[in-house]
Structure formats: C-alpha cells, structure tokens
Amino acid sequence: MNGSVVLRRIGGGVLVLWLVSLLTFALIQLLPGDAAQAIAGENATQADVDRIRHELGFDLPVIEQYFRWFSNVVTGDFGTSLYSGRPVTELIFEAAPATLSLTVMAIVIAVLVGVTAGIAAAIRQGGWLDRTITSLATFGIAMPSFWVLMLLLLPFAVLNRWLPATGYAPMSDGLWPWLSHILLPATALGLASAAELARHARGCAADVLARPYIRTARARGATGAWLIRRHVLRNAAIPVITVLGLHVGRLLGGSIVIESVAGISGLGTLAIQAILQRDYTTIQGYVLFSAIIVVLVNLVVDLLYGWINPKVRA
Amino acid sequence: MTATLQFQAGPAPAVGTARRGRTSTVASLMRRPSFVVAAGFLVFLVVVAALAPLIAPHDPSAQVLEDRLKGPSWSHLLGTDDLGRDVLSRLVYAARLALLAPLISVSVAILLGVPAGLWAGLRRGWVDAVTGRLSDTLLSLPGLAFALAVVAVLGPGLFNAMVAMGIVFAPSLYRVVRGATLAVAEESYIESARAIGCSTRRIIWVHVLPNIAAPFLVQVTILMGVALLAEASLSFLGLGVQPPDSSWGSMLEVAYQNQYDAPLAVLPAGTALVLTVLSFNTVGDAIRDTVARRRDS
Fold first, then answer.
1. Cα-atom radius of gyration of chain B, to the nearest Å?
2. Which residue of chain A has the CA closest to B146?
3. Rounded Cα–Cα distance for residues B118 and B123 (Å)
4. Cβ A140 vs Cβ B242: under 8 Å
5. For chain B, does the N or the C end have fewer beta carbons within 10 angstroms?
6. Phi, psi of B242, rounded to the nearest 5 degrees
C-alpha cells in the first residue's frame, strides 16, 4: 500500500471524527428547553442557573461555544464532570482499562472459538459436527450477551462459588485474579462475535478446501495440519478481520450491559452513572472516546487489509 | 411475512416476468422448513400480542405479595416475580413491546436510510459523498452508547431510545439500498427508460424498488432482531421501558436482582427473547438464500 492511500484513509478517519464531534456537541444543544436549567435541576435558584450558563459558556454564540469546546477536545481536554468536578479525561482513563480488558479478552475468545469451530465445521462438511456448530452459531447470534452471562454465572458463581460473580481486579493484582473476574463476562460478550466469525470462517474455509490446488497439495502428500496452516488460516484471516472491525462498536456497546451485570466499573458504568446524574460533559466525553476507538480500529483494519491481501493494494 | 406481503401490494412491476418471479420466490420460501417455523413463530407472536388480554391467565400487574418468587405451579405456569406477579401473563403482555419497539427503530431507519440510499445511488457525485460520510460517522458510534446519550438528553423512555437506535441503524439500510440502486442504475433498461422520458419517480417505483426489495427485506428482518436485543439491553439497564410497563429486558432485570433466591427465573424472558431474535434472523437468512439460489439458477 503506498503512502497516498494511507494518508487518504487517515484523512477519512479524521473527517469522520470531526463529524462525530459535531454530533456529540449538537446533542447538548438538543437538551429540551434551557440547557443550563436542565443541568442545574428543577430546584436550582436563578443565580445557580446563571452561574452554570456562564461556566459552560452557554451565554456565548453557538459557533463560538463549539470552537471553544473543540479546541479543548483536540488537546485531549474533554471538560470537567458536571457532577464530580473532575476532568472527564481523567474519569475516562480510570475506567478504560477494565472495559478494554473485557473487550480485548472477548475478541481473543471470539477469534479462538469462532475460527476453530468454523474451520472444524468446514473440514467435516455435512457431518454431525458441522450441523452442530452451524446450529450453535445460529443460536449464539440470537442470544443477548447479558443473558448469556447470567446463565454462565448460575453454575460457576451462584450455585457453586468457583469464580467470583462480580467485580474486577486489574492485571497488576496478578494474572489469576484478573482472569477469574474477566473470564465469564468476556465469554458472554464475545459469544455473538464468535458465532458470526464461525459462520464466516466456515464459508471461507469450505471455499478454500474446494479449490483444485488443495487436491494437488493432498496428492503431493500434504497433511491436514499443514494445509490448514498454509492455506486455510491465511485465507480466513480477511473475513475475520472484517468482522472484527465491524464488531468493535458492538462490543463496546455490549460491554455497558455486561459491566452492569458483572459489577465491573468501566466505561459503561461511567456512562450509566453520568446519565443518571445528568452529567452531560462526561456523556459527551464517553461517546467521543468510544467513537475514537472505533475509528482507530477500523483504520488499522483497513491498513491490515492491504497488508494481508495484495489484491486490494490500490 | 406481513412485510413481504405489504411490499408486494405496492405498484405492479412493469415487466410480467418480474411478478411471476417474486410469487415463486414466496413459494420456494414456503418449501423451507426453517422459514415456515420461524415465520410461524412470528405470526404466533403477533397473535399473542394482539390477544394478550384474552390469553394472559392473570392481570400482569396484579401483585400477590405472599406469592413472591414462587416456582412454576398450576395457577402460575411460569411462577411469580419479586412482587408476586404472574410471569406468564407478564411475558404475554411484553410480547407487544417486543414487536413494537423494533418496529419503531426499523421505521426510523427506513425513513432515513432508504431515501438517502436511493438518492446517493441515482445521483452519485457530491450527494453520494456527503451521505456516505454521514453514514460512516453514524457507523463509528457504538449504537448503544449513542442511544444512551440520546436517552440522557431526552430522558429515559422506550420511544426516545428506539428512535436513537433507528438513527444508528439507518447506515446499514443506506448501504444496502445504495449498493443495490447503483447496480440497478447501471442496467441498460434504466437508460432506455430515461431515454423515453420516464420521470425519476417512475423509474424508482417501477424499476429500482422492485429490484432492491430482496436485499432490503433481508436487512430489515435482521435489524428487527438487533433492535429487539438493543431494547432488551436498554430496558435491562432501566433506561428503556419505564414501570408500570414491562418488556422482556426489564423482566430479566428483575430476575437478575433475585438470582440467588430464584436462579431459574432468568429462563422465561430470556428464552422468549432468543426465540424471537432467532426467528427474525432465520426469516432474513431464508430470504437471502432463496434469492441467491434463484439468481444462480
């Protein structure tokens, strides 16, 4: 992939992020009635409302408000929380590690389970293993992740106490405390992606295995494991990466509910608290931060494409 | 199923073969057992929702506090919840929201995505560039996060949340419609239609819409399932449906709060959710496979 394509993709990403910033800014402008009044609450005095209006710059023209806000955002300053008065960036960086562990672990589980199951189904096409995996995948896509987590918690944490039912331990506490807290939530979160990956990997692997060069390789005496490594995995990588790019946003959204069931204080918990506390600057920061992650991941996906598949190197 | 019929009731396609082609698409769909079962379940759900007062054995909000968190019995087939309300009756009444909530989202997505997709596909140029960027922007917002932000601004409530989800879904319909329209617009009969002076409106109704019906329907049924899952998530968090109304999502929240006292209470509402989403997806998959097969043959 040459430099100008990379630059164009990055430019596209920046443009999208700028539009997202407009959108999140507009959200606050959409507050019904007087925004300052809504933030101050029903029992606030007129003086309180005026103070809030001035502090947030609501007494300035909209364009000027936007430029003030945007120039801060560009430097990483998402404003201060209306509830706690702490910088929103700080709140986000405190909450992000738990959510990122959860989503990254969910992706790892989704890829391991999904790709293995999909390739196994493709090798045993039409057999009972294939039928089982295909029907399980159909169910997996239809299951709400938080319900899956409740079902997983029942045997592992409620009826038996093998794993903790709630909470989170950072990796600095040790690998097992971290893993034991995150394993069930990440499995539940990643299941739907695993199911979708299994479908794509099966389709792709079946496609590759039907090619004449596979028969040639078999005739030369290539073993199954070698074929899988050499041909199937490499070809399956493209749909896997595409699906992952599409799923990042869904996983981040899904982690909101999963965190609430698993009692993990991450970005989702931060967002829900912010909503209940009418802490609009934190919500703005949360939406913008999530969008930045999605755009970045998709940028990486786009660039990986060109690297894996020379055909799209334009 | 009903959606299919409605779509066919639109203006008749100009070419006779197209109409025959579509009726036999329905016929070959009906030969698929998975489609018949899934569509049958959805029809069943519509009937249950419509006749909820006749079907529900109890008043869904009648509280019998001495019967709290009871397991299944003859008087309460699926047991009772934390306020002694009959779970089966609540499940039956919540079927209404399970259909209504996705319908709100998908309608919003159709209203935004289809005209934009048609416009971009037919006009291309700057229209395509602008709508494409907008669609990329919405796609980069985690749907649930955006819905949460809208709920934060407009206040908790199912309608606001579902409209917000509809806005997030619009790009996926936009992409499908735009892609299909671009493909159709390349066909020589569109050029002929223009040459004999057909208006853009007529070209859309007669040539474009019938040809994009299949990919559109596939996307709509799949979005119905996604919207239902989103509704359940938001209601589970207490930001969607508000008491005294209840949905399968808010029922799951009640069951979750009492999971140590009644561990199996998470099953009824969860199963109802899975079966409904599964049916939407199966119908969508069946339409896709049938149309793809007919195109190949």
1. 22
2. A287
3. 8
4. no
5. C
6. -110, 145
ipTM, 2 decimals?
A: 0.83
Inspect the interface and report whether the beta carbons of A253 and B143 lie closer than 8 Å: yes
Separation of alpha carbons A20 and A288, rounded Å? 7
At A103-146, the pLDDT tens digits run 999 999 999 999 899 988 988 888 898 899 988 998 888 899 99
- The count of residues in chain A is 314
Residue B272: C-alpha distances to residues A151, B182, B285 (Å): 15, 39, 20
Which tokens hold the place of B258? 């009492």
What single-letter amino acid sits at B62? Answer: A
The minimum CA-CA distance between A287 and chain B, rounded to whole Å, is 6
Kindly give, in sequence order, each residue whose CB lies less than 8 Å from that of residue A133, ignoring residues fewer than 6 positions away: A117, A118, A120, A121, A198, A202
| Phi (first) and psi of residue A41, to 5 degrees | 95, 170
Q: What number does CATH give the domain B25-57+79-296? A: 1.10.3720.10
Q: List chain B domain ranges.
A: 25-57+79-296
The pTM is what?
0.84
Average the pLDDT over each of A37-41, A62-66, A89-93, B280-284 and give the range with the smallest value: A37-41
Distance, CA of B204 to CA of A131 (rounded, Å): 42
**Whether B212 contacts B274, CB under 8 Å:** no
H or E, element range at A75: none
Q: Do B149 and A24 touch (CB under 8 A)?
A: yes
Residues in chain B: 297
* SS percent in chain B: helix, strand, coil, step 5: 75, 0, 20
- Is the pLDDT at B1 greater than 70? The verdict is no
Which token pair is A233?
Answer: 């995995």
